Amino acid sequence: MRSVYESFSTGVYLLAAVALTLLSISIMGWSVFEVIDTMFLAKRHLEGSFVPVMLQSVGAIVIAVAIHDVAKYMVDEEVLRTKELRSAVEARETLTKIIVIATIAVTTEALVYIFKAGMRDLSLLVYPVLLLFAVVLLLVGLGVYQRLSFQVENGNKKT
Question: Does the record's keyword annotation contain Transmembrane helix (predicted)?
């Protein structure tokens, strides 16, 4: 019974990973289409929407890569690999990668919002500044995690 459930669970992870990969490819394709449309097909580049579209496309592609990375993680860890406990080094590397991708995505969104707020109303700059503050907290948290986990890894090697 356990093997049936594990096979079913692996199939669900594989299905979710395939769906996430298709979604990430769709997001990337749509972003590239938006850039091409803005640059060559539409008159929007004359209306001052060129930079916001470019920044939004960059943000969307970064998010699509993050989605694909989650799908890759699911396949690597839940489909291809046997279900054993990972080492502390692997866990730290994986978490670091995810936090860095999230940081890039949030930073890109903050830049988009800064640009939009600068064009509309400077009082709206509070929200992008809060996003940038969140990025700083993410980086500080990642640094603390890295330091603590590195100390644990070194402590484990000495014994």
Answer: yes
- What torsion do the CA atoms of 143, 147, 149, 154 make, to the nearest 10 degrees? 150
Strands in the chain per DSSP E: none
Global pTM exceeds 0.70: no
pLDDT tens-place string over residues 118-127: 777 778 888 8
Sign of the CA dihedral with 136 first, then 138, 141, and 143 last: negative
> Cβ-count burial of 29 within 10 angstroms (0-12 exposed, 13-18 middle, 19+ buried)?
exposed
C-alpha distances in Å from residue 3, one per residue of 66, 75, 90, 109, 115? 31, 18, 26, 44, 53
Tokens representing residue 137 in the block: 């907290």
What's at 122, amino acid-wise? L
* Alpha-carbon distances, residue 127 vs 91, 111, 135, 146, 156 (angstroms): 33, 11, 13, 29, 43
